[in-house]
Specification:
It contains ten helices and eight strands. By secondary structure, the protein is α/β, with parallel strands linked by helices.
Amino acid sequence: MKTTKNYAGIADEFGQLETAKVVLIPVPYDGTSTWGKGADKGPEAFLEASENMELYDIETDSEVFQQGIHLTMPITENASPDAMVNAVHKTTKDFIKRNKFVTLFGGEHSISIGTIRAFNECFDNLTVLHIDAHADLRETYEGTKFNHACAVYEASQTTNLVQVGIRSMDAIEKTVMDEEKTFFAHDMVNDEFWVDKVVDLCTENVFITFDLDALDPSILPATGTPEPGGLLWYETLDFLKQVFAEKNVVGFDIVELCPNETSKASDFLAAKLYYKMLSYKFMDESVDDSYDNTYDIEQKSNTNSLKFDDDDI
């Protein structure tokens, strides 16, 4: 992966770690995907598209890059799936502890195992809002529990997992799935209240993991396993805007962009989606407001909700 100095080509003053409210971690990893390969090229394509994107958001009347977005070095650990998950977990947790709004761009969906683990260790009563075409609830797949098909199995056991857009799964995943918190695409299309229902099922602290194959391939074909019948652009934005407005979104990741050299539309959509999500998060904050992601090491260390060891602090 080529290294880019700053996200979206923003000026250095907005990309400095010390002052940036947002951290963006690229994870160009494609170690366990089983059909369409190329997710390791996703972060580079996303960053290139971001450099060619207008940075004024019409809807929110804001330029969220001015809050500061620090682009880290990519996580390139690929010795094994578990080593990658551990590297993502450590890096994510380190930046959360620095009170940054942490975001990641994959890479295939197995990167989210480490990401979710870090957020769950740092935030009480966490909801993982999983937006995806696939259930990703296998306990193990192809000899490892760190597979893209297992992306949210751990979350199903340790967090409040809410799944949206599901339209492809294995029968074995029904034994794990909480169908009361699962929104299947074929039901959503006939339910005008599905967004409200999803939000009602979320706790206050929400981490979003967004697999781009949740979107219909008519608007985003460049993903490893495109499935017909997905979400469209404006319904996705309306949904996300409501989640950000009503809940404390503590971070998010976006995964599974497999760029196509002959068409850049999917890359640009991914870039725009990331920027829209940041715009919704910070639309009510001025540039000068200090960022508080509600994570306070000293405060949490005095409660029973502390989930990591003292030497981790």
